[in-house]
């Protein structure tokens, strides 16, 4: 029997729940939105009115369409109103005890044929299903923030899910205009396992003082083309949610990269949860970034390393005097690797600054322990003169972009190698769930497997973090001379 999903219930109308309710209503389904109390219900209604109001203001919806969408949603504080729903999805806080209590109630209230779904970010769907007398009809349906915009829905089945149900829920996701990726029940599923590990890594690097918040954000946005830097995204997701997801990941993996960075705990405890509280890593009242500095006053510049001629020519065109390393006031060492060894060999090592050009929009400006602040500032200015955004950082293996990107790519290879998800599914999940310009396997092909493998080796040598060691599959592919993981038989 194929189910028909016409009436749905959404329990919890916070950012995600309200977004999910909007998605169902836009697709023509009748929605009953449930919140715990009248005040929360009004906030939920406000989310829906605000979101559809913005679409109206942008001309994406007409007044009549908006009224029709809102007219399909009924608001209530009583779970009993879900008795005749065909599917109920919950988007309440990520606390297992809350979810278990809710599913026990839903199991009692909802008609026997109803499917119960959870939008949990990482908790065990199997455990949630086990609290009901219908574990075969419980699935995960994981949406991404902002739900009306992001195209991905992860459909999670458990060992007890009825045959065929995951496909029916995937078909429902397609009817909503989404792309489903079906996976088994593992902490963090595909996206959060890869994404939160990377976001947490960014927070750890921030705590370690590798680079400042805005530098790291700019590095990943402009250097990799991600829609948001890691701290802007953490603020969007919510630091409480991010913290909870990481705790669940850590509990399962015992991998210390999943242990939430202490700064997350601190901000959450301070009530700075991100956008929803008006402040997290970024605060609303903060003034904009510093204005670009004027042309730096530098006597003469020496440029060393691969690509030195091109950069020196650009600087000369901009009116700077170029000279040899011995004669110059500032020495720029173009390098993918730390430059301290080079600096230590110079008579005045405080003049040397490492520079790594990433893509065509940013340049990582690496200061060694010996670099003077004047030299670093001068090179930041030079970077702006040649039309790039400087990303200030310490002189560490792989600087910022590659230090964050390569472990993420390595994790994707491990995920594929574990048999959890297919290459195409992982690629589409990251593109459609997070708006990445390309999936991790596409990025690997573009960067070259050997480059990434070597970068991971350098990271491992620097930080001695076991999971930075190249995934055995990656190592083997490079050794075998295979150019793309897709070429595997
Ligand atoms: N609700 C509804 N629509 C929204 C919205 C919201 N909260 N925020 C943005 N939009 C719409 C805008 O109205 C606009 O629509 P239009 O194209 O029809 O005019 C469109 O999205 C683009 O928005 P903007 O022009 O304002 O801004 P951007 O182009 O910068 O896009 C973004 C904003 C879509 C959020 C983009 O920055 C992005 O894709 N960021 C990455 C988000 C991400 O990674 N999400 C996943 C997080 S992980 C998660 O949710 C899982 C959980 O379990 C933790």
TrEMBL record:
<comment type="similarity">
    <text>Belongs to the 3-hydroxyacyl-CoA dehydrogenase family.</text>
</comment>
<dbReference type="GO" id="GO:0070403">
    <property type="term" value="F:NAD+ binding"/>
</dbReference>
<feature type="domain" description="3-hydroxyacyl-CoA dehydrogenase C-terminal">
    <location>
        <begin position="399"/>
        <end position="481"/>
    </location>
</feature>
<dbReference type="GO" id="GO:0008691">
    <property type="term" value="F:3-hydroxybutyryl-CoA dehydrogenase activity"/>
</dbReference>
<feature type="domain" description="3-hydroxyacyl-CoA dehydrogenase NAD binding">
    <location>
        <begin position="7"/>
        <end position="185"/>
    </location>
</feature>
<keyword id="KW-0560">Oxidoreductase</keyword>
<feature type="domain" description="3-hydroxyacyl-CoA dehydrogenase C-terminal">
    <location>
        <begin position="188"/>
        <end position="282"/>
    </location>
</feature>
<comment type="pathway">
    <text>Lipid metabolism; butanoate metabolism.</text>
</comment>
<dbReference type="Pfam" id="PF00725">
    <property type="entry name" value="3HCDH"/>
</dbReference>
<dbReference type="InterPro" id="IPR008927">
    <property type="entry name" value="6-PGluconate_DH-like_C_sf"/>
</dbReference>
<dbReference type="GO" id="GO:0006635">
    <property type="term" value="P:fatty acid beta-oxidation"/>
</dbReference>
<dbReference type="Pfam" id="PF02737">
    <property type="entry name" value="3HCDH_N"/>
</dbReference>
<feature type="region of interest" description="Disordered">
    <location>
        <begin position="278"/>
        <end position="298"/>
    </location>
</feature>
<dbReference type="InterPro" id="IPR006176">
    <property type="entry name" value="3-OHacyl-CoA_DH_NAD-bd"/>
</dbReference>
<dbReference type="InterPro" id="IPR013328">
    <property type="entry name" value="6PGD_dom2"/>
</dbReference>
<dbReference type="InterPro" id="IPR036291">
    <property type="entry name" value="NAD(P)-bd_dom_sf"/>
</dbReference>
<protein>
    <submittedName>
        <fullName>3-hydroxybutyryl-CoA dehydrogenase</fullName>
    </submittedName>
</protein>
<dbReference type="InterPro" id="IPR006108">
    <property type="entry name" value="3HC_DH_C"/>
</dbReference>
């Amino acid at each position: 029997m194929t189910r028909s999903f016409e009436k749905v219930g959404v329990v919890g109308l916070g950012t995600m729940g309200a977004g999910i309710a909007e998605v169902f209503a836009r697709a023509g389904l009748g929605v009953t939105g449930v919140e715990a109390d009248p005040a929360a219900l009004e906030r939920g209604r406000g989310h829906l009115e605000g979101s559809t109001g913005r679409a109206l203001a942008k001309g994406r919806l007409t007044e009549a369409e908006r009224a029709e969408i809102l007219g399909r949603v009924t608001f209530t504080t009583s779970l009993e109103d879900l008795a005749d729903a065909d599917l109920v999805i919950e988007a309440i806080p990520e606390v297992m005890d809350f979810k278990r209590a809710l599913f026990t109630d839903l199991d009692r209230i909802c008609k026997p044929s109803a499917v119960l779904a959870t939008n949990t970010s990482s908790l065990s769907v199997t455990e949630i299903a086990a609290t009901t007398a219908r574990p075969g009809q419980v699935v995960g349906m994981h949406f991404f923030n902002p739900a009306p915009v992001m195209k991905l829905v992860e459909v999670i089945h458990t060992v007890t899910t009825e045959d065929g149900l995951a496909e029916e829920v995937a078909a429902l996701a397609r009817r909503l205009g989404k792309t489903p990726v079906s996976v088994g029940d593992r902490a963090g599923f595909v996206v959060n396992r890869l994404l939160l590990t990377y976001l947490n890594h960014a927070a750890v690097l921030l705590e370690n003082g590798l680079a400042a918040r805005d530098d790291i954000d700019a590095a990943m946005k402009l250097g990799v083309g991600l829609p948001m830097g890691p701290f802007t995204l953490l603020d969007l997701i919510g630091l409480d949610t991010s913290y909870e997801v990481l705790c669940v990941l850590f509990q399962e993996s015992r991998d210390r990269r999943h242990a939430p960075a202490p700064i997350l705990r601190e901000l959450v405890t301070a009530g700075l949860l991100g956008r929803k509280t008006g402040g997290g890593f970024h605060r609303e009242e903060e003034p904009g970034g510093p204005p670009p500095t004027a042309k730096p006053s530098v006597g003469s510049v020496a440029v060393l390393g691969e690509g030195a001629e091109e950069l020196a020519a650009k600087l000369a065109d901009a009116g700077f005097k170029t000279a040899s390393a011995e004669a110059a006031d500032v020495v720029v060492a173009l390098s993918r690797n730390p430059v301290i060894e080079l600096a230590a060999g110079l008579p005045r090592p405080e003049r040397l600054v490492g520079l790594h050009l990433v893509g065509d929009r940013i340049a990582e400006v690496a200061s060694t322990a010996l670099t003077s602040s004047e030299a670093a500032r001068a090179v930041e200015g030079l970077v702006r003169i040649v039309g790039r955004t400087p990303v200030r950082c310490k002189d560490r293996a792989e600087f910022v972009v590659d230090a964050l990107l390569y472990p993420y790519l390595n994790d994707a290879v491990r995920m594929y190698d574990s048999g959890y998800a297919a290459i195409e599914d992982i690629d589409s999940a990251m593109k459609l769930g997070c708006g990445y310009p390309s999936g991790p396997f596409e990025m690997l092909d573009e960067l070259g497997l050997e480059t990434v493998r070597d970068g991971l080796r350098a990271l491992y040598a620097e930080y001695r973090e076991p999971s930075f060691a190249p995934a055995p599959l990656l190592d083997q592919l490079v050794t075998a001379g295979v150019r793309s993981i897709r070429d595997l038989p």
